[in-house]
Amino acid sequence: MLSVPKQLEILKRGTVTIHSEKELADKLARGKPLRIKLGVDPTSPDIHLGHAVGLRKLRQFQELGHHIVLIIGDFTALIGDPSGRSSTRPALMYDQVMANADTYTEQAFLVLDKSKTEVVFNGSWFKEMNFLDVIKLNSRVTLNQMMQREDFKNRFGQCHEIRLHEIQYPIMQGWDSVVVRADVEIGGSDQLFNILVGRDLQKEEGMEPQVCMTLPLLEGLDGVKKMSKSLGNYVGLTDEPKEMFGKLMSIADEMMAKYYLLVLGETMDAAMHPMEAKKQLAAKCVAVYHGEAAAKECRDDWDLRFSKRDLAHAELPEVTLPERKDVLGVVLHAFTTLESPISGGDARRLIQQGSIQLNGEKLNDPKAEPAWNAGDVLKLDPVSKRPIGRRGE
Q1: Cα gap 98→281, rounded to integer Å
Q2: Once rounded to an integer, what is the mean pLDDT over residues 318-337?
Q3: b or e along 247-263 (b: 16 or more beta carbons within 10 Å of the residue's beta carbon)?
Q4: Residue 364 phi/psi, 5° resolution?
Q5: Strand 361-362 relative to strand 357-358, pairing
Q6: What span, in angstroms and rounded, lies between the C-alpha atoms of 356 and 362?
Q7: pTM of this prediction?
Q8: With left for phi above 0 and alpha for psi between -120 and 50, is residue 211 left, alpha or beta?
Q9: How do residues 250-282 score in pLDDT, each as one tens digit?
Q10: Which secondary-structure segment (H or E) carries 376?
């Protein structure tokens, strides 16, 4: 293993909190592999780059010689993590959770070394508990503690309901740490409360408490809200290469440094031109999940479409001209045709800010009716999460 200072230098990179760094240093100083825990709830079938932030930190621990325990929350997923939620999550059926778990584990190994990863399901211990066991576990945590959570506190203050089963979630996550004897637990910055519950339960069991390591939440392609499939602002690990490349080319310039750090584990070269930096980010990300050849093909295709303006040789989707011939009507129709519908307000904003082009010329007036001709190229802003030129007919 590397020296403790060197390991700390690597592991601290990109973290929000480490509680505590001294405890982590002491654990590392023993020279033995630590048990590093990450729990994931398979509430959907796909993993996106936001999920991969934690997986990449696990991979760093893995490469430093530590033991990874990936907990698939088949039972916690039935509750749904209330962290950051202003309302109760919709309930999932167990069969749906287990179907999602199959793809979760498969996709997790796009980042993790499968041969060095222990995968466990928390249902394997929770399903063995009887009601008396549940009562005893609940007796270890007070309602006062639960109400210190910002999300519960806010919901209570705003007279929004808090279902009793939601209060079980931090307790269950904490008990996971006891069962797997975690030395370190990794989670998003919204997971700190849950991870601290794990520390408390470990102490009660006479165990050395785990170190809490939290990571930043990755904003989605909109640059505002946390990456989420339900919000449509995500980049999936199994997205097709060109789709992944195009989505990443749509992120705002001010988000690139964070994406470099959290998605690639690199520091962006501040001297690099923003467009080149974005192309490198997109290409490197595609290379991680699809290989170098796919990354090169995506970049070459992008340059052909947009940088070199050689659109005559690019394969562009075609759309027919709708009855409504004004710019706003055609733009809305084009987005809908490509199954990326947007609101009239968003379309109008894109037009007025100069993000829509016809044969290289900006269309700034939503009410204008230019002469639309077959073979024209309509370039849309990548609000659809995939920047594409379109031929009008």
Answers
A1: 34
A2: 88
A3: bbbbbeeebbbbbbbbb
A4: -100, -15
A5: antiparallel
A6: 6
A7: 0.74
A8: beta
A9: 888 889 999 999 999 889 998 888 889 999 999
A10: strand 376-379
